[in-house]
Amino acid sequence: MGLELYSKIEEYLDFEEEVIQLHKEFLSIIFEKGLDNILDVGCGQGAFLNHLKANGKTACGIDLSVEQITVCLSFALDAKAIALKEVTSKYDCVTAIFDVINYIPQNDLSIFIKEAYSTLNNNGYFIFDTNSLFGFEEVAQGSLNINLRNKFISIDALFKEEKLKTDIRVFTHEKNNLFKKEEDTITQYYHSSVTLRNSLKNAGFKIEKIINFNLHTDEESDKLIFVCKKI
C-alpha cells in the first residue's frame, strides 16, 4: 500500500523533530506507569525501539515490511516481520505510534484492537496515537514537491469520505540522462473518538485517558493519544 516507497523518501520529509516529540510523550507515559516488556507494533526502522533500549527497557518490534525489519536487525534490535495476530508472546505494554492505527481500515479496526488485547498480560497497557479530524482536514491534506540533486519527489494528499489518499511519485536520475519513475498510493483512515472508544470497550479495555496532542501545529490538536488498560 505504498509504504515501501514511503520508506525510501521518509528521510527527505523533515519529520524528525515531530517523531522525537511524539516518542518523548510515549516514553513519559511508559515511565509514569512503570512499564517494561513492550511490543511496538508497526516499528518501522526501529526509532522508538532504540529509544526504549537507550532507556533500559526490554522491547520487541513487529512490522509487515521485511525491508524495515532488516534495518532494525542491523541495529541489533529485537524485531520480526510478522502481523500482530502472529505474535505468541505476552507483553505488559503494546504501542502503536505515528499513524499505525490510521493505516487500519474501518472493518479491521475492532479485530486489530482485540489482537492487541490478546497480546497483553493482565493489567497491561495499549498506548497508541491517531490523527484527529483536524489533523486530516487541515494538516495532512495538500501537495508537496521536493527537488533534490538526483531525485524529484511529488506528493499529493486528498482527504475525502473519511479517507486520506496520498499519491507518491519519485523520479530518480539514472545513467544516460534517463529517469526511473516509481509511484504508489497510501490510504489512511479516520477513526472517530466514538468508534475507537466503542471498539476498545468491546475488546475489554478501560480507557484511562485521551491526550490531545499538537504535533504539527499549535492551532488545534492534530493527534489524540489513547492510554488503555486491559481489565
Describe the protein.
It is a single chain. The protein has helices spanning 3-9, 16-33, 47-54, 66-74, 106-119, 133-140, 193-203, and strands spanning 38-41, 59-62, 79-80, 91-96, 120-131, 142-147, 151-160, 163-173, 179-189, 205-213, 223-230. With 231 residues, the protein is α/β, with parallel strands linked by helices. α5 (106-119) packs across α7. The model has no long low-confidence stretch (mean pLDDT 95).
Keywords:
231 residues, alpha/beta, Rossmann fold, N-terminal domain of TfIIb, 2 domains, 7-stranded mixed sheet, 4-stranded antiparallel sheet, 36% strand
Please identify which CATH superfamily of the largest domain we are dealing with.
Answer: Vaccinia Virus protein VP39
Principal-axes shape call? globular
Largest beta sheet: strand ordering:
3-2-1-4-5-11-10
- Number of separate helices: 7
Task: Write a brief caption for the model.
By secondary structure, the protein is of the alpha/beta class. Helix content is 32%, strand content 36%.
Map the helices and strands.
Layout: H1 3-9, H2 16-33, E1 38-41, H3 47-54, E2 59-62, H4 66-74, E3 79-80, E4 91-96, H5 106-119, E5 120-131, H6 133-140, E6 142-147, E7 151-160, E8 163-173, E9 179-189, H7 193-203, E10 205-213, E11 223-230
